[in-house]
Structures are given as C-alpha cells and as structure tokens.
Amino acid sequence: MRVELTKYRVKEGKNELVDEWIEYMHNHMDDVLMNLEGEKMFVETIFREAFNDVEYLYWYSVQDDNQPEDKISKADLDEKHLEYWERCIDKTFRPEDMKAEIVMIPERIRRVMRYNND
Questions:
Q1: 2-115: which CATH architecture?
Q2: Can you give the pTM of this predicted structure?
Q3: Is residue 40 left, alpha or beta, with left meaning phi > 0 and alpha meaning psi from -120 to 50?
Q4: Which Pfam families match (predicted)?
C-alpha cells in the first residue's frame, strides 16, 4: 500500500473559498466516498494549517499501490472538486511530499484492505 502526505499552499485570499470547498465535500460525502472506492483509496484526509498568515492544505492518503495515480483519469474525478482545486491551490508553490518513516497499520486491518481489493 502507498501512504502519502503532501503539503499544498492555498492562494492568497482564497481562505473563504477553501471553507466553501470543504463544506461542499462534507455535503457530498457519499459521492466523495464512491470516488475513493474507484481509486482504491482506503483513507484520505485533508488537514488545514495557517502559518504566518499563509494557509496550507495537507493531503494524507493510504491507497492500494496496485492502482497507480496516472491510471485515474480526470473524467473519473468530480469536476467540482477539480474546479475548487484550480481556484484554491497555489501552483507557484512546489508541493512538499513528506517521507513516511514508519507506517503503523495493524496486520488485521491490512488483511481487510487486501481482501477488499482482490
């Protein structure tokens, strides 16, 4: 399985739009979870941080490593989510991928993850 944590910077002045984006995701959670199933994504979590008047979003995910990201076409993703992404994420900031030093998922949970993806 692939475990990732990536940091993205929010464009200046887009904090309220990020609020709207998060609310949209909460209000459409059934659709969001259905997309995760198709991506073989076990867990996806978005964290939010404000530091020195700059806002960042962190994406944490646990995904089946047999489903490479490049196989997920944009047509399969929710268009509204991508619209928010384009409007909110600062592309002048290089996303920072954190290095997973240790992944602590009990074997019984790993077995369930493998079972559900066979």
A1: 2-Layer Sandwich (3.30)
A2: 0.83
A3: left
A4: DUF6176
